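Listing S7. Sequence submitted for prediction.
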Amino acid sequence: MEISKDTEAVIEALDNFTEGSLRKKNDITYLLEIGASYGFYEEIATFIFSGKVLWNLFKTIKKTTIDTQTLIGVQKEFETTLEVIRELILKFKEYGDETYQKRLQNTYLEVTKGCILNIVDLCHDFGKLKEMQTKIKNGINEVGNT
């Protein structure tokens, strides 16, 4: 799949924003390109929002100071959000070439701990995209209000 200049620009800006700390740069690039190519704008918005949520939930679960009752609720929300992300990946998988379909299947859609951790890494990148969007929006609002 050929990546558009617009998608390349978004990824370059995101990579700069994260100071080169993207974890699944190629995969987020392809998913954004598929979304743009097929008009999946709501799905991309869901990827970005849910990615940020899942990344935050993952960080919360890793905290050792969280109480048991809270942990149970956070884990349940994590599983629900994980399923949303998996469904989106499954949908986007159908629009990739055969090689990319296999990559998505093997990297994200198998029921393994490794695939869950790969989804967490992908959500890290989508979460960073959400942070970048928010920072840009707030910067524009600040400029507009002065």
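Caption to Listing S7: primary sequence and predicted structure tokens for the chain studied. Residues 5-141 form one domain. DSSP finds six helices and no strands in the chain.
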